[in-house]
Design goal:
The structure holds 2 protein chains of 2 kinds.
Chain A lengths: L3 E7 L8 E6 L3 H10 L5 E5 L8 H5 L4 E4 L7 H9 L3 E7 L13 H11 L3 E5 L5 E6 L2
Parallel strand pairs in A: 2-3, 3-4, 4-5
Antiparallel strand pairs in A: 1-5, 1-7, 2-6, 6-7
Chain B lengths: L7 H13 L4 H8 L3 H13 L3 E4 L2 E4 L3 H12 L1 H4 L2 H25 E4 L2 E4 L5 H16 L2 H10 L5 H14 L4 H4 L6 H16 L6
Helix pairs in contact in B: 1-2, 1-3, 1-4, 1-11, 2-3, 6-7, 6-8, 9-11
Chain lengths: ~140, ~210
């Protein structure tokens, strides 16, 4: 079985198990650049928050999978990902780290660590469990 | 460095672009109340200022859009921010918003033995109950929307959009509940929430 790199809330159960290179998106400009590059479908998108509302265009343009580092499945992004049937794992944490997201008490170090570990890695999302979504290594 | 403030028409157009994240000029006109031919000219101006770009045939905000809106809103909406009636109604909105998000999830997913599964919409009694809850939640925004429209008439566009979506749902057009590609109740609510936070100069909590 492939190595589990990270785990989080699975927003909805799905048999879809997209693979792609993780791309960390930190600002609206990153999303615009990605859409303009025509390579949206090659990437699993990593963003900091469930309230990262700038991701909406990427979802409507056919993003294949999303990982967030904070936020709940009931949030706006969770609702959108179910509408678009885009597999989505929220508040993911690295299985190899003790750092966890805590509302209002999470410093930038937590997000930097995850972004550094996942950005650029080839992964597969497993969203078949009704609670836990898994980010698997696919190198 | 503080971003330069925009005039009201530029603000109204850029605000809608930022709320929708991606939109065509006609849609921006409908949601902002600015005439289509004026929207086109304003968009060209905003593009020249580096505040919007056109990609895949739609207008998107750049990273500089948010700071420009923030600066402008602080000036335009100083009186709204000082209005005690608005403050009181906004406190109540937070509760209504949490109920709304839960209700929206209940529309998309049903609880079967503690496990959430996709709502296949085969149980019309269940769907009707969720829709009726949504109608009530939308109605509870009324006083806040009215109070905001007293300060800026553009807030009067929201009740009209909500009414059109709610009427459509009641006529059986269920995509108007949560479809991200229609002027659905969820889209309008989400845009209003973000608009409200910007108007008041607050950060998003959920």
């Amino acid at each position: 079985m492939a190595e589990v790199l990270a785990e989080g809330y699975n927003v909805f159960d799905t048999g879809k198990s997209p693979t792609g290179t993780v791309k960390y998106l930190s600002a609206p400009a990153d999303v615009i650049e990605l859409i303009q590059s025509g390579r949206l479908g090659e990437h699993i998108l990593l963003v900091q928050g469930g309230t990262t509302t700038f991701l909406a265009p990427a979802l409507s343009m056919g993003a294949i999978g999303v990982i967030t580092m904070s936020g709940a499945p009931e949030s706006h992004l969770g609702i959108l990902s179910r509408e678009f049937q885009t597999p989505c794992i929220m508040t993911a944490h690295l299985t190899g780290s003790d750092s966890r997201y805590v509302v209002g008490a999470t410093g930038p170090g937590h997000f930097d660590e995850i972004a550094k570990a996942l950005d650029g890695r080839k992964v597969r999302l497993d969203c078949s469990d009704h609670e836990v979504g898994r980010v698997l290594a696919d190198d | 460095m503080t971003a330069p403030a925009l005039d009201k028409t530029r603000y109204d157009v850029l605000n809608v672009v930022a709320l929708k994240k991606m939109a065509a000029p006609q849609v921006i006109a409908a949601a902002s109340g600015v005439a289509v031919r004026d929207v086109e000219a304003v968009l060209a101006d905003l593009a020249a200022r580096g505040l919007v770009v056109v990609a895949a045939g739609s207008v998107l905000p750049t990273d500089d859009a948010e700071p420009a809106l923030r600066t402008t809103a602080a000036g335009h909406y100083a009186a709204v921010r000082d209005d005690p009636l608005v403050a009181q109604l906004v406190d109540r909105f937070e509760t209504v918003n949490a109920q709304f998000l839960t209700t929206m999830s209940a529309w998309q997913q049903v609880d079967v033995g503690g496990r959430k599964v996709a709502n296949d919409h085969s149980d019309s009694a269940y769907d009707d109950k969720v829709i009726s809850r949504l109608d009530k939640l939308v109605a509870r925004l009324g006083p806040l929307l009215d109070a905001l429209a007293d300060h800026d008439p553009r807030f009067g566009i929201y009740p009209r959009r909500f009414a059109a979506a709610v009427d459509g749902v009641d006529e059986g057009r269920h995509e108007l509940v949560s479809s991200p590609t229609a002027d659905s109740i969820h889209n309008i609510w989400f845009e209003f929430h973000e608009d409200l936070l910007r108007t008041l100069g607050r950060e998003r909590a959920a």
